[in-house]
Amino acid sequence: MNDIIRMTAADLATHLQSGEISAVDATQAHLDRIEAVDTDVHAFLAVSSDALDTARRIDERRAAGEKLGPLAGVPLAVKDVLVTTDMPSTSGSKILEGYMSPFDATVVRLSREAGLIPIGKTNMDEFAMGSSTEHSAYGPTRNPWDLDRIPGGSGGGSAAAVAAFEAPLALGSDTGGSIRQPAHVTGTVGVKPTYGAVSRYGAIALASSLDQVGPVTRTVLDAGLLHDVIAHHDPHDSTSLKDVWPSMADAARSGARGEGLAGLKVGVVRELTGNGFQAGVQSRFDETVALLTQQGAEVIEVSAPHFEYAVAAYYLILPAEASSNLAKFDSVRFGMRVQPEGGGTVEQVMAATREAGFGPEVKRRIILGTYALSAGYYDAYYGSAQKVRTLIQRDFNTAFEKVDVLVTPSAPTTAFKFGEKLEDPMAMYLNDITTIPANLAGIPGISVPIGLAPEDGLPVGIQVMAPQREDARLYRVGAAIEALLEQQWGHTLISQAPALGGK
Amino acid sequence: MAKDALMDYDKALELFEPVLGFEVHVELNTKTKMFSSAPNEFGSAANTNVSPVCLGLPGALPVVNEQAVRYAISLGLALGCSIAPSSRFARKNYFYPDLAKNYQISQYDEPIAFEGSVDVEMPDGRIVTVPIERAHMEEDAGKLTHVGGSTGRIQGAEYSLVDYNRAGVPLVEIVTDIIYGAEADAPELAKAYVATIRDIVTSLGISDAKMERGNLRCDANISLRPRTAAGEPPAPLGTRTETKNVNSLRSVERAIRYEIQRQAAILASGGTIIQETRHWHEDTGRTSAGRPKSDADDYRYFPEPDLLPVEPSVELIEELRAALPEPPAARRRRLKADWGFTDLEFQDVVNGGLLVEITETVAAGATPAAARKWWTGEISRVANVQGVEASALVSPENVAALAGLVDTGTLTDKLARQVLEGVIAGEGTPQEVVDARGLAVVSDDGALIAAIDDALASQPDVLAKIRDGKVQAAGAVIGAVMKAMKGQADAARVRELVLERAQS
Amino acid sequence: MSEISEEQVAHLANLARIALTPEEISSLTTELDQIVDSIAKVQEVATPDVPATSHPVPLSNVFRPDVVGNTLTIEQTLQNAPEHADNRFKVSAILGEEQ
């Protein structure tokens, strides 16, 4: 049944609907794959012991003639930042080791209701702080294209899981690129929806005003199918939008048919191209832009003068919000507790627990955020960063007056090696330069694979961004790019990934 | 705890001018909490009124209770405040085990209501206008129980237990501007101010306003500034202390008086006041030093990213304004007239902080006179002896029931006082106490006549006197009968019957 | 240079309730100094005429009706507690002996 794991979610769903493949078979095939390759990849922190039972129930319901959702029976990997009632939720941190949530994240609940089968929790940088999963307290995830390289972060586990065929679909969260950058370095698809399109309830908060949950898949259509499952208004999340969304899967299908490229105005952001970008990343990007032009799109260079301040603003807003969001990990109601030598007051117990329970990057950002909010610095740092946010939104607004979508390389480089940027936090932070502006402005972004960099043979992605609430545009354009390139290559990019130790 | 030196109150006032400020926290009586649909209920079993939001569980998010916002706007309007067209929630960051998220969702630079004033009636009938700086919405914290050590206090405890039932209960914090000119009446003003806030929130129906339950809590800021000679500029404001844990109207008054005397003694001896939180101790009538204010109080406020601005429409504000109850001062005038109390009687009620109790007792069926008699009389006396709030002793319904038993002749006044004692002791409703203690007046004439005949037979000389028309001689027989009936007889009826039987 | 001192980092660690080791304080001081140097540039364009944005998508008046919903069972409430007694969460004494 090696075929099952290589199928797209859309194809697998069709076979499930027709009864050619059962949910139990689909689930078992992926569990076997995890068993075979995850020792090498380490995409998962937990594997569900309920998955086969859940699959059996789906098969029974289908056999009983019940009308199920289009993805019913398809396995799903869930980033460990999302709380689940049937598996521990640690957010990649020691401080939450073994934590069992009494409730499911809204996206997990919606996925279960749609008949998807959660098969495991995926690895991530601790509390989603990082771009490499090297900051996971449970050890890094390895990039299926090259096990010595990072799979991106923070959602390296979800991206590696789909790239290594351990799951056809995964859920991720994107605060500054944690879905899109891993997609870029693993040759997969990742979407950060419009802020508020997908509920944050049950996503362990990193930076509340930036976090957004989204799909991680191997194809644009699969992302659209999962997006349609999770994008609904949620009264538990005050920032959840009440919009009624068009089907993203339909948008992807229309894009794949080649609709919508003729006359499409595509903006290339001058500040996010050229200097500082790896040659092979840049060349693949340029080729793709040229391809769009060939297809009748109008490519326009636009300027976003304040993007150069985006990383700085982001690394003030994120740590500030995170320093507050992570205060709840205090050893009182849940999580690790460390007793200082010779006992101590509750204050000392809290401090000892947080010292032992948080990794170095988490401590660094908490201290930075505490600094940014502290008396006398607020206006200079946090206050200024919130103003930069306004300026970046204005840059986007100006650009979207001229163009329908913006495109950039999804990240400046291909997958780097473990340890390469670990000692230089600022270099690591700058890796997010392309993805951060969308989070600051709340707009949607997708990363779609566009080939391998000639110099290292590693995947490269293009990022497409659209105005707030225009998520469907990403799917149309993303699917069009995907279809054109696959037509050119005669195969999918992911099919070129090296075979792993698996059978 | 070392005893503080205190200066004589009048002397303190000669040397210093007291400057006041109050922060009153009002717990709203919404059905659910401020940011979660968990019930807002007092007295439930520990940790049963909690949701993931109340516990600050990973992934939980707050959502604002609309009713709490409406209540806060109504309260703001009743305080004469402007309602902000846009106000925001902010996080106040500090670690404490009763604060589940280790930040409190409050409002900081954009409160829902600002710049108002409240007219407060002093014991002598004078009206003082207290300026209000702001009223803002926030959430309450959980409850800590300190275990071990001798006192059940935080000092010396071995460990503490946390119950989050109260965590997230909606609060409105009312902050006054600096209050000058209270002078020697500062303690009375403090008490009258808190009583007025209590009246306002009670008449709005937005809080149970029971101080003993912590529904209404007052933090009192006090500083003293030295008086300067006429013509000289006033001295700068002194360092203030913030007295917390003041859980009754009586304590508000006492705590202010105590702090004035304590600070005056320190200043007069050349000492300096430390800016600190002080805790009021009801039992000792003193305040003790709490945490000093320091740079550890860097709360790192920032706009709450999980919540959105509150932007009440003009229509909503006007709807709530139109529904406001009459202001306390007007209400008092009306109640005084309705109840037919004299100036003195009414002042007694106001000074006792008993307007609400009497209103509710009358609503429960008592006459205003009976309600006043019980509340300002026996109940206040017992409250004073026990050092508690009168309202904490007995419910208005029970007082009305007690008055009813007197009216129907079931109880004499004297018996009723014994019944009240039983009700206060927790023995049940007045009727239950009457039944259990067998305290009802003996209204069975047969039993009375038997006792009277016995008494007359044993005192033939008295009988003769009565028969001679010396009616006052009956007193001796009445006394004997009352004694025989253990006081449970109506003396007037006994007298009637004695005269009747003597002639037979 | 932003000139962050070790004392400042120690103070921040205290505010954030993290018992950093002296080595951590020392290395964080260096790192923070570099990071703050590069992020302080936000001040260059954050002029007074620019309003602050705290929510990427502007919404207001998002409320919940005052209707009681589900609560956790006591088992759910306490299931992750490091220590509990009497259906309450148990913590060490709040004040040290010297207080």
TrEMBL record, chain A:
Give the positions the UniProt entry annotates as the active site.
K79 (charge relay system), S154 (charge relay system), S178 (acyl-ester intermediate)
Q: Which residues cross the membrane?
A: none
GO cellular component assignments = glutamyl-tRNA(Gln) amidotransferase complex
Residues annotated as domain Amidase: 25-474
One GO MF annotation is: transferase activity
Q: Which UniProt keywords apply?
A: ATP-binding, Ligase, Nucleotide-binding, Protein biosynthesis, Transferase
* EC number(s) given by UniProt: 6.3.5.7
**Which BP terms does GO give this entry?**
translation
Q: Which reaction does it catalyse?
A: L-glutamyl-tRNA(Gln) + L-glutamine + ATP + H2O = L-glutaminyl-tRNA(Gln) + L-glutamate + ADP + phosphate + H(+)
Q: Any keyword Disulfide bond?
A: no
| First-level EC class | ligase
Q: Which domain of life is it from?
A: Bacteria
Q: How does it assemble?
A: Heterotrimer of A, B and C subunits.
Briefly, what is this protein's role? Allows the formation of correctly charged Gln-tRNA(Gln) through the transamidation of misacylated Glu-tRNA(Gln) in organisms which lack glutaminyl-tRNA synthetase. The reaction takes place in the presence of glutamine and ATP through an activated gamma-phospho-Glu-tRNA(Gln).
Family classification: Belongs to the amidase family. GatA subfamily.
Mind telling me what this protein is named? Glutamyl-tRNA(Gln) amidotransferase subunit A
Q: Which organism is it from?
A: Mycetocola zhadangensis
| Name of encoding gene | gatA
From TrEMBL, chain B:
Q: Which UniProt keywords apply?
A: ATP-binding, Ligase, Nucleotide-binding, Protein biosynthesis, Transferase
| Record SMART domains | GatB_Yqey (SM00845)
Q: Where is the Asn/Gln amidotransferase domain?
A: 356-502
What does the record list as coiled-coil region(s)?
none
GO molecular function annotations of the record = asparaginyl-tRNA synthase (glutamine-hydrolyzing) activity; ATP binding; glutaminyl-tRNA synthase (glutamine-hydrolyzing) activity; transferase activity
Superkingdom per UniProt: Bacteria
Entry's EC annotation = 6.3.5.-
Catalysed transformations (reactions): L-glutamyl-tRNA(Gln) + L-glutamine + ATP + H2O = L-glutaminyl-tRNA(Gln) + L-glutamate + ADP + phosphate + H(+); L-aspartyl-tRNA(Asn) + L-glutamine + ATP + H2O = L-asparaginyl-tRNA(Asn) + L-glutamate + ADP + phosphate + 2 H(+)
Keyword Nucleotide-binding in the entry? The reply is yes
- Alphabetized SUPFAM superfamilies for the sequence: GatB/YqeY motif, Glutamine synthetase/guanido kinase
Any Gene Ontology biological process:
translation
User: How does this polypeptide assemble, per the annotation?
Assistant: Heterotrimer of A, B and C subunits.
What this chain does, per the entry, is described as: Allows the formation of correctly charged Asn-tRNA(Asn) or Gln-tRNA(Gln) through the transamidation of misacylated Asp-tRNA(Asn) or Glu-tRNA(Gln) in organisms which lack either or both of asparaginyl-tRNA or glutaminyl-tRNA synthetases. The reaction takes place in the presence of glutamine and ATP through an activated phospho-Asp-tRNA(Asn) or phospho-Glu-tRNA(Gln).
Q: Which family does it belong to?
A: Belongs to the GatB/GatE family. GatB subfamily.
Q: Which NCBIfam families match?
A: gatB (TIGR00133), PRK05477.1-2 (NF004012), PRK05477.1-3 (NF004013), PRK05477.1-4 (NF004014)
Protein's recorded name: Aspartyl/glutamyl-tRNA(Asn/Gln) amidotransferase subunit B
Automatic annotation (TrEMBL), chain C:
Extract the Pfam families matched here: GatC
- Statement: the UniProt record of this protein carries the keyword Oxidoreductase: no
Q: Where is the signal peptide?
A: none
The record's catalysed reaction(s) read: L-glutamyl-tRNA(Gln) + L-glutamine + ATP + H2O = L-glutaminyl-tRNA(Gln) + L-glutamate + ADP + phosphate + H(+); L-aspartyl-tRNA(Asn) + L-glutamine + ATP + H2O = L-asparaginyl-tRNA(Asn) + L-glutamate + ADP + phosphate + 2 H(+)
InterPro entries in the record: Asp/Glu-ADT_sf_sub_c, GatC
Cite the entry's keywords alphabetically. ATP-binding, Ligase, Nucleotide-binding, Protein biosynthesis, Transferase
State which Enzyme Commission number(s) the record gives.
6.3.5.-
Q: How does it assemble?
A: Heterotrimer of A, B and C subunits.
Q: State its role.
A: Allows the formation of correctly charged Asn-tRNA(Asn) or Gln-tRNA(Gln) through the transamidation of misacylated Asp-tRNA(Asn) or Glu-tRNA(Gln) in organisms which lack either or both of asparaginyl-tRNA or glutaminyl-tRNA synthetases. The reaction takes place in the presence of glutamine and ATP through an activated phospho-Asp-tRNA(Asn) or phospho-Glu-tRNA(Gln).
Output this protein's name: Aspartyl/glutamyl-tRNA(Asn/Gln) amidotransferase subunit C
What are the top taxonomic ranks of the organism? Bacteria, Bacillati, Actinomycetota, Actinomycetes, Micrococcales
